[in-house]
Amino acid sequence: MVTFIEILDGPNEGSRFKVEDGITLGRSKADIIIKDPKVSGTHAQISIDGKGQFVLMDLDSSNGIHISGRRVKKVALLPGVIFEVGRTQFKVISVEEEIAIDFSRLVTWRNILKDKLSEVTPPEPSEQSLVLQRFSPALKLTFTQGIQTDEEIILGYGPRKAGSESLDIELHDEDAPKEAFELHPGPGMVELKIKAPGRVTLNNKSVDAEMLKDGDLISFGNTLIKVTYL
């Protein structure tokens, strides 16, 4: 048997998504994209509990997960269970594997990114290759003001790039620079490198680069982003 979650009510009603360990749900930076304004950027994640059962865990989202109107921290993804993420209602279903192949429609952020990258001609290999490093501790960006308010992005590795045309961290503010800032791993902290000095500020100050502290505020246009270490 293969387990799916199906949208009963909300954006993309009728869509079904295969349940897999590690899959995230959210409005922007997630595997399963839910275009619901009450859903956080990365809202919840599917994992396997100690009994080998799939569960959906709330990632400290603003509006949480609800069952029968009651907010819960996690949901056991058993056949027939109905739950809500934001204002979107889901139902858990299980089908035979042969049938699952016919209607599986997993629309993920990774697939969208893959499609966009397939249209780009790759550059010639350079002598210096990009090495991804872990953010230790991990970093959470919370949009507290602006068009992306309540969106949360959890970052576990870097470097990362943010901007209005970024395929990594996309900024929707109409005044956001094409290349706004970068986040680089540092010793026990994350370094902020501002690519548009004057248009992007840290704690209302114009800087070129600085190690981020818990509670720092990155701002541009009408947008305010709070930094939190996890």
Topology record:
Blueprint: E1 2-9, E2 16-18, E3 24-26, E4 32-33, E5 44-48, E6 54-58, E7 65-67, E8 70-72, E9 74-76, E10 82-85, E11 88-95, H1 97-103, H2 109-118, E12 133-145, E13 152-158, E14 160-163, E15 169-170, E16 181-185, E17 190-194, E18 201-202, E19 209-211, E20 217-220, E21 223-229
Parallel strand pairs: 3-4, 14-15
Antiparallel strand pairs: 1-2, 1-11, 3-5, 5-6, 6-9, 7-8, 7-10, 10-11, 12-13, 12-21, 14-16, 16-17, 17-19, 18-20, 20-21
Q: Taking Cα atoms only, what radius of gyration do you get, to the nearest Å?
A: 19 Å
Number of strands: 21
Q: Give the CATH topology of the largest domain.
A: Tumour Suppressor Smad4
From the spread of the alpha carbons, the general shape counts as: elongated
CATH domain class name of the largest domain = Mainly Beta
Walk across the major sheet and give the strand order.
Answer: 2-1-11-10-7-8
**CATH-level-2 architecture of the largest domain:** Sandwich
The largest sheet is: 6 strands, antiparallel
Mean pLDDT: 85
Low-confidence stretches: 98-109
Helix content: under 10%
Distance between the termini: 36 Å
Strand content: 35-45%
What is the string of SSEs from the N terminus onward? EEEEEEEEEEEHHEEEEEEEEEE
Number of helical runs? 2
Number of domains: 2
- The class by helix and strand makeup works out as mainly beta
